[in-house]
């Protein structure tokens, strides 16, 4: 008998390992010798023992996993752990479209679009989705016309349920809504006294247990083990208690979540008060829809919500509160920074930049709602939350790829498609959010990972700023690129698309078409100014200033007051300087003047923008020689009192294209860098095949 | 025939008691191996946990028409299961015949167990029981 085998090993959890442990153990005895033969009776018993051991091991492992939020796999377990952290998983959220609706041929004083009026969307991926109004809208009728502006339409259909309260069979008054697609932000709950008494009270959702009184008509929402949502009511201490005989009536919108997003055109489906015709004008395509919160998201969000404790003190608190908002607005990214970090500093403020899901920016109303309903109630008294729009900088990549044709069956066209798709994918996964970095190494590795046959690649980069010029009032625009810009030379530099129409400065009634913005080619640099670093002392005569650098011809003189340099005058700016220093030498005969030090600034930090058009003879004609500046060092483009009459673009969007001095571009605060997924020209790839 | 000296010992799956000691009866040597071969032949694929290929497919074959082809297939099956899973036995001869009523198979199996030079015979009758 071997001593090493007389203790059974319990480390294995797989069937084979467990059985092997049994066999190893049995080797230490000599009563049964058939343990190692598959057909033996003992082997059959070992199978049963090993199976039972494994079964129990797996079961215990599963139970142990489900006991912790980090390792739980079943949704019901994760939701249960989240409940201990006072976190309710977010339901599916219907996307919202904004439209203007106009009715013609109506009568009376007011015209109303009732709550839950049904509209049918255009086809989105082959499906026409139902949309409803979440509120009732009324407007005054003028000349037989009723016009509604900015009506919100939410994707989904109205659903209703009625529950009878019986405190004997359901003492907790928990009612499960048998619909996994409920949008809980649309839930409305009212409680009727009884089947014979139709008076009712409206109950509101509550998550703040500290402010609830015993008579508050509030309800609470939780997710059930089946994955549906349940509503439950107060116990007479935390909120009003229901009584037997009460009837709970609920309405909500059942939504398809994110899949209904993108719809922009709608038709009315319900019969409203008589009208002769109507038009629905899209304002904003349906966006910000979301599917029911995933298990991973619950695991991520619940501890953060718990850490915030219903208050907004740290940056993370703000981010959590916004992500958890009950307004039904979903965000891809949230960036928060204190006013003291802002440029310029704004003490006592917290700045919040939000990138909504499926949209570029929030509407003004949504921003106000986030501030008043989400941030204000939980932020520190003396801190003012301010929402800042995201500032997008679009990246335009032009890539060249060389690949070995012999190593792949892909054609150059295939490679081109794959690289293009990979670059858009890189933007989606790594950029397109706050605090991200575009780096050339990432781009090159993205390209090379597309196909093993790719030998090498390179790319050039442009940045684009897109904005909607005010067509009625001259406005000054400052476009921040977030990175230094290359100085343009002839035939290159800042450009604009599409063409704009502007008034002729010499004859404002004359509108000039096909006007573009361009950078004035930068002149050769001279000396721009000389500032005094140290005025020195005991100068008896004006010192001699000598400007040294890679240019020629620059001269300057200094004026002395009380022995110190008081003023420097440039007598010749010189040409061709890209770097210059100035030395201060006491004049002949001046034996006491010392320590004067000056600093040279060169021309060229700022460039000039102008507008031009091609005249009838196709000759470039400058329309306005100075409509703004380019700060090359800080990457800021300024358009002063810019007042186009029209932009030749359906959206009225003007794009300014610049070239950065580096391919490493980082974003911070409210800046987002991205490759525009809706711009087919944002990625341009040329592919060459090496054939030997 | 030289008797083996209890090289192999196994449980008797009938779990009958040994009179007097009330212990569970054991099977030794050629008896143990014969039992093991019978168990293997009667075990269906996927019957034993995590060992889907252990056993034979004989039960499934009994639903096929009784013929010479089937008899040959049964013979192969028996040969495979013994050579794959019962290393203590070496096949001497396998005979599979249809029964006189054509409703079953009579199997005569002759194997050498261990180093024993005398074959051990196993007879099996496969037929429907109801």
Q: Can you tell me about this structure?
A:
The complex is a heterodimer of chains A (692) and B (130). By secondary structure, chain A is an alpha+beta fold. Helices cover 16% and strands 39% of the residues of chain A. Chain A has eight helices and 39 strands. In chain A, helix 3 (75-84) packs parallel to helix 4 (295-308) and helix 7 packs across helix 8. The longest helix of chain A has 26 residues, at 41-66. The mean pLDDT of chain A is 88. Chain B is 28% helix and 26% strand. In chain B, a hairpin with a 5-residue loop joins strand 3 (89-98) and strand 4 (104-113). The longest helix of chain B is centred in the middle third of the chain and has 18 residues, at 68-85. The model of chain B has no long low-confidence stretch (mean pLDDT 86). The A-B interface holds A 15-16, 31-34, 37-42, 44-45, 47, 50-51 and B 7-13, 26-27, 32, 35-37, 39-40, 43, 48-51, 54, 85-88.
